[in-house]
Write a structure and sequence with these properties.
Layout: H1 2-19, E1 29-39, H2 63-79, E2 89-97, H3 100-107, H4 110-113, E3 118-121, E4 131-136, E5 142-149, E6 166-173, E7 176-184, H5 192-212, E8 217-223, H6 231-237, E9 239-240, E10 251-252, H7 255-260, E11 266-268, E12 271-273, E13 276-280, H8 282-285, E14 293-299, E15 320-321, E16 324-325, E17 335-340
Parallel strand pairs: 1-2, 7-8, 9-10
Antiparallel strand pairs: 1-17, 2-4, 3-4, 5-6, 6-7, 8-13, 11-12, 14-17, 15-16
């Protein structure tokens, strides 16, 4: 019996070792992205269509639900990156946040407060009132410059429309110039043209940043509402599947092969998509000696983030579904990239 137990233990170690990822040194850095799925407070913001997230709105969005949402989001954000680095992420881009009050309330949650997590936010013109923001650990990332580049609707019929812009945050990480662009492209309810236009506009912002500093370590992240192989990402933005194909002016998208392996960040009608991407400049995949370079990426997944029963079993556990409050997390899973000198 003892021999059998030892054999089983050995097999278990082999099976765990075949999938486990090695710990990185503490001087490595994790950078993440997470769509928080409608982090709204309970008050109306003038000029915004936020009525479904009010106490008397369609979602009956009460203080209790808001507080639970904050706790749930802070748990995920504080654990992102900790599979590889004990200190977690140095910076995390987020989408679908209503305003600065929500971000301040989020950073006051105990897991984030203990690490002194700060935020960067610029109020945008989105008609529903949802914005992008950047959370960061000031001990590991110093913010130097922040601007919101607007998403421009170019067609005459769209003259009165407004959407999320591109939040550009430049700073210093590991004594290097690092810039992060956080964005949330138009939804799948819109024609692909609008996401392709977003890809072209992102490329213009990227080109401008690289002209200012060709060696900047640049990360473009967000809910792209498209998969890596879609035209908005692969052609309009120029994010390539293979590192060897990344030429001058191109970018590299590590999530193309992650999705091809069957792993995604959101599920629709039984199939996985990977909209939540972090795309890298050539300086991160071909770093100069002694500078930050790409090491790995992962879709951050915990059992508590997955629905355990019912029609949507096996998919991300949402805050609401079918008109029912599930006290869940988000319809998206987070993503993380790891950098190291």
């Amino acid at each position: 019996m003892r021999r059998i137990l030892l054999s089983l233990s050995y097999l278990l170690l082999i099976s765990c070792g075949s999938t486990a990822r090695p710990q990185l040194e503490e001087d490595a850095y994790a950078i993440g992205f997470y769509n928080l799925e409608n982090l709204f407070d309970t008050c109306h913001d003038a000029g915004k269509n936020d009525y479904e997230f009010l106490p008397d709105g369609a979602n009956r969005w009460t203080s209790k639900k808001y507080v639970n949402k904050l706790r749930n989001m802070s748990r995920v954000l504080s654990e992102m990156g900790t599979d590889r680095l004990s200190q977690g992420c140095a910076a995390i881009g987020v989408a679908e946040v209503e305003n600065s009050k929500c971000l301040a309330d989020l950073c006051r949650q105990e897991p984030l407060k203990a690490r002194n997590i700060q935020y960067v936010h610029v109020e945008g013109p989105d008609q529903r009132g949802i914005d992008c923001a950047l959370l960061y650990d000031p001990a590991r990332f110093t913010v130097r410059n922040v601007r919101l580049v607007p998403y421009i609707y170019r067609l005459p019929q769209d003259a009165h429309r407004a959407s999320r812009g591109f939040l550009v945050v430049s700073g210093t990480m590991a004594n290097e110039h690092v810039t992060i662009i956080v964005n949330h492209l138009p939804s799948r309810g819109a024609d692909p043209y609008y996401r392709e236009e977003g890809g072209r506009q992102l490329k213009a912002v990227k080109d401008s940043l690289l002209r200012d500093d060709p060696l900047v370590k640049l990360l473009i992240m967000g809910d792209m509402n498209d998969d890596p192989q879609d035209a908005s990402m692969s052609k309009c933005l120029g994010a390539k599947r293979w590192q060897k194909d990344v030429g001058e002016g191109d970018l590299w998208n590590p999530w193309w092969n992650v999705l091809a392996s069957g792993t995604g960040t959101l599920s629709y009608q039984g199939s996985w998509n990977l909209f939540d991407q972090i795309i890298l400049s050539p300086s991160l995949i071909r770093p100069q000696q002694g500078t930050l370079g790409y090491q790995d990426c992962e879709v951050f997944r915990r059992n508590y983030l997955i629905q355990k029963k019912g029609r949507y079993r096996g998919t991300p556990l949402r805050t609401h579904a079918g008109g029912e409050w599930l006290n869940g997390y988000s319809d998206h899973l987070p993503t993380v990239v790891y950098l190291k000198r």
